[in-house]
Amino acid sequence: MHHNEFYKPTNTGRLIADSVADTRIFEWSRTEPPQELLDALNDPRYAPCIVFPAGDDYQNRMIDAPVEYSRIPVFIILDGTWRQARRMFRHSRYLQHLPVIEPRTQRLSRYSLRRSTVEHHLCTAEVAIALLEQFNEQRAAAHLERYFDLFNGEYFESRRKWDRSPE
C-alpha cells in the first residue's frame, strides 16, 4: 500500500483486508521494503505474482494463472492511485522477478469517491473482486462486492450530508 493511502478515508484496499482471510498489508517503499514482505516473497510455500495490467515491455512476465499448483497462490495488488501504482510497479526492484497477472474482466468502475481519467481503471477493491471471480472464489467475491457497495454508498451519502450542512 502506498504510504499516502493508509489514512485516506476513501481507500478501498482495507476493505480487502477486512473481508478476505489471510490478507496482509505492507507499506510500500521503493528502496527499503519491509523484511516481512521480502520473507513472504521468498517463502517456498507461496507462488506470488503481481496484479497489474498487461504491458509490452514486460510481456515475458505475463501469466494467466499461477503456474505452480503445489504452492499457495499469492496475489500482490498495488494499492494507490493509478499513478502511484505504476510507480510502485516500475520502481520496486524486489518485485521485478515476479510474474504479472491481469484480471480478465469486463467490469467498469463503480467507485464514485475518486475518479480515474480512464474508464476501465478499477479501484483496488474492484481489482480484488475481479480476481476472486476469475479464480472461482464466487462467495468471497460476492462478499467483498457487497462490502464495497455498502462502503461506496455510505461514504458518498456522508459526503452529501456534509456538503448540505449549514456552516
From TrEMBL:
Record domain DTW: where: 1-160
Pfam family, one: DTW
Enzyme Commission code(s) on record: 2.5.1.25
The UniProt record lists the keyword Transferase: yes
SMART domains in the cross-refs: DTW (SM01144)
Keyword tRNA processing belongs to the record: yes
Catalytic EC class: transferase
Keywords: S-adenosyl-L-methionine, Transferase, tRNA processing
Alphabetical list of InterPro entries matching this protein: DTW, DTWD2/TAPT
Alphabetized PANTHER family for the sequence: TRNA-URIDINE AMINOCARBOXYPROPYLTRANSFERASE (PTHR21392:SF1), TRNA-URIDINE AMINOCARBOXYPROPYLTRANSFERASE 2 (PTHR21392)
Protein name: tRNA-uridine aminocarboxypropyltransferase
